[in-house]
Design goal:
about 250 residues; alpha/beta; seven-stranded parallel beta sheet; 8 helices; 7 strands; about 40% helix
Length: about 250
Amino acid sequence: MALPLEGRTALVTGAAEGIGRACAIALAGQGASLVLVDDAPTLEGVAAEFASQSGAVRFVTADFGAPQDFPRWFQQVAAAPVGIDILVNAKSASSDGSSLLADHDDDWKRVHATNVDAPRVLMQLVGRQMVERGRGGRIVSISSSSAFRGKAVRLSYGCSKAALNALTRIAAAQLAEHDINVNAVAPGVTRSALQRKLRNEDQMLAAVSAGPLENFFHRVSQPEDVAAAVLFLCLPGSRQVTGQVIHTSAGTIV
């Protein structure tokens, strides 16, 4: 029996590690061909793992600080007749400054370039192609519970993810007539590469057990937990879901 995403191509950013890597594996497991994009030098090192699950895997090294350069490589990897059916914006940059008074312009610009500008440019590039091809599509971005909290949030990061949520809602409204679903998934504390830069294992467990990051289960999420929600939003059964932010924070945000 054919897998539900056979004949579909998914472009996944941040695919070298963490949530992006888990999303790519989940999509490949349902038959999708892959275009994997990251700035990490380890990207090609995961080729064999993906190739064993997917019919086609292509790799792109991109500078997420310069999303204005994305059209150049996009035209090469997404040219007809292949095209892109699914876009997963999983690449994220963390913030250096944690407070309004400590934040600085360079940090703000760097974080927003990766977390807002890059998804916007890719939504435009993929969206235009989806409209031209006339077969609809799915766009899913990785947000954060930080976009919904005032405490324990790094300023640039939280603001960038809130902007990504707004971008998701507006894009969903504007692309719906073309049968394109646009959603976001908002994790809480997750064992991702981004989170490990901020907390060790004991600190993660403490964070989900008490304080502003506490969740109902007192359990740290795995990248695969987030990827499962992303996969659902890319499958036929979610065709009536659009413009939504799906929380995988185990109740941190309710």
